[in-house]
## 1
Amino acid sequence: MTSQSNQNAHVLSKVPCGTVYYVDHIQADAGLTKRLQEMGFVHQAPVIKIADQGTVICQVGHTQVVLSAEIAQQIFIQAVAIPLSDETTLDKLKVGQKARVVRFLSDDQGLFVLQEMGITHHEILEMVRMAPLGDPMEIRIRNYELSLRREQARQISVEIIP
């Protein structure tokens, strides 16, 4: 990728977690640029920053990649406009409804644990059942059931699938 800079591009290490971005360009030597491209960091590839705790964990396509903060500073990305009108939060789903995970509304460590359990961007989930008082709720994701507190579910933005 070229080293030309787009005014709207941001450094991967500086953006918040949970939003979809596109790779704009890489400013690194030829060897590192080639290695990053082999990992999926090619122009216009979708990138989601999952965690940033010393190292940067991100999802490129269907692959999770761990980068040092120094390498993440050499990857420039652009934000993707996500229409908010079709989004809701996971806690608002009704039993039987299916939805796709769009983004996370917080960088909370508890959400990192949920991501480790399979709630990742673009995954499809289904509301299975709700406790009598509405908390906790049970969802099906990746062929298993997971119970969540309503407060956790409020931090996960989803797009309802008809």
## 2
Amino acid sequence: MEQLKNKFEDLKQFGMQKLLDKTHKLYFLYGLSYSGYKEFFLISPSLPPSCESTDAITVTVGKRKDNQYTLAFKLNDNKFDEMFYILCSDFVESTRNIVNVLDGPRMVVQRYKKWQKLMKTGARLILNQAEIKGLAGELYFLLNKLSPNVGISEAVRAWTGPDKADQDFRLENCWYEIKTTSPGSETVKISSPEQLDTEMRGELVVLFADRTSPTDSKGVTLNSLYKHIVEEIRNYGKESVSERFANQLSKSGFIPLKEYDDYAFNFSDCWRFDINSDFPCIRRKSLPLSTGKLTYDIILNNIKDFEIK
């Protein structure tokens, strides 16, 4: 996002468009209209799907003399420029590993419609502190624990937490439920019996993280984790993984806003517990049929026998 912001700020001439990234498979341009409005374009040989404008952004489709199509996004109000930079950066990164360039307009419009839906529902742009810490724990585990073992592509594909699944990560033969808590915490909260009561063997992963200063060299933020994962996908990921990651972030309610730079965490330890048939958790079959939603706490010191060293 910062890179695109800097590029727009360096523009001095109205009515000029520049190529954004010559290494990208799609042809993205950025520029200023003759009236001084910020514009972002996709040039493609395929016709873009229909797409509605909003008060903040005007969307137009045109056909060029070379029979290519233009999908253009014009920012109507500069007070939304930070959001515009993030939106356009999302277009670029979510299509970074695109297989067929003819799918470009469809994928970009799909991303834009997700953003429209987010705005129309009145969703909060900033997650609350508990959500920030929880999401930071999932991204930290994805990047630093799971990806080194299975690869970034499989790690992103395994991330099911944003789908409201019972576990945060699911592989073919194993699952991981991530709990991020403060050092010294004696318990972690289990959101439902189904989180740990499964036939497949899995792990309860407890990450210990303290809130720290944004200037702490050991601290990580949602934005820094996001950027590192995007870079990993770009360098080592397989096709379509960028879009998968972008979709999961969208479901989580995360947009890489600069406000998240104020929430830094120092991850100090990681405890892993083997969840097998003997693990002391609440089993759905042991509950009365009349029991509905149920949450409970697990005392960490009482499950040391199941810790994976």
## 3
Amino acid sequence: MSLGIAGMGWVTPLGSGVEFVWNRLRKGEEAIAEKLDSQPGGRCYAVFRVPDAALATLPRHPRLRRVSAISRFATAAGLEALQSAGIKVEANNTERIALVFAISNGGVTYTRRFYSDIVKTGPQSASPLLFPETVFNAPASHLAALLGITGASYTLVGDGAVGLLAIRMAEDLMTNEALDYCLVVGAEEVDWLLCDAYRQWRLLRSQPPIEPFGQSARGMILSEGAGAVLLGRSGSIKLGKTHPGGDYRKRSKAADVLKLVLSDLSDGVGDFIIASANGTFIDKAECRAISQVVESGIIYTFKPALGESVGAGGIWQVIVAAQALRYGELPPLLHAPPQPLFRIARAGDRAITARGAIAISCGLSQQIAGLRLSTES
């Protein structure tokens, strides 16, 4: 079975639209961090937020009036993916499109508000308007209802690797000939509660920049947004191979699992490698695996420019991989030190002979996944 990317959608701290964001990345631009205040007198956190202008084209719909930010991001990305593929959801195809949603932290802003009210004034204050937004599958529900999709709908919850695992699940779903397309969406929103949690886990840094593949793990900056990939049975960018991935119980073992994934996906020569390095322990694991498996190729991570979007990150990797194959180049890798073990993306780098683009995701908890895109039939 041959699957291709029929359309894509992107909502990021650098704006929305696949080509718009891609061009900004190619110019070496990066998002500007905003300060996010916690409780009165508490800490301030640096985050990369989606600008209001990125959602300017979002349709006015009753279902979107009170939804959380994560649902708005997902809707905007999903609509762009369908529009770029020229697909309209109508009565004759509503059951032939499946939806797979990748999520990690979920609608944490409304969840915090919902339980905060209960803690402060008791269960009687629980808002029936906020409660539907506290479940993980709320964004998928909103998106499916707005689009009119009545086919299969699933929500996968995981860490930063969940986006690539969602693509693999979509591949399995597309073995059903009753489906023509599968829309895979990953989305995330930021909130001070999330920042506080990641800080306590010693994964967050107080100020940008994110410095990938550095000598020391100085931490990441959280970001928000969404990505959408519409898989179909045709498309110039092919889904070459997905990997089931694996889990690691200790951080020191992550590189071993990554090495197995890379070995299975790479032919060792001329590939683009879209890594998930974000300034944490992940960087060291990916550096070790890449240096041992990949003989040549260009390595890139968008995290210094767009931040760590967790649940959306894997889908963003797929979008970057597809764009790299389409244009034969990668944006420059920002804030990275000279890397003697492998070749990182620099301004003007091109790989005309690249036969594939590999995305590897190492999650912050235990999941690892990977896939390969190609331009070959």
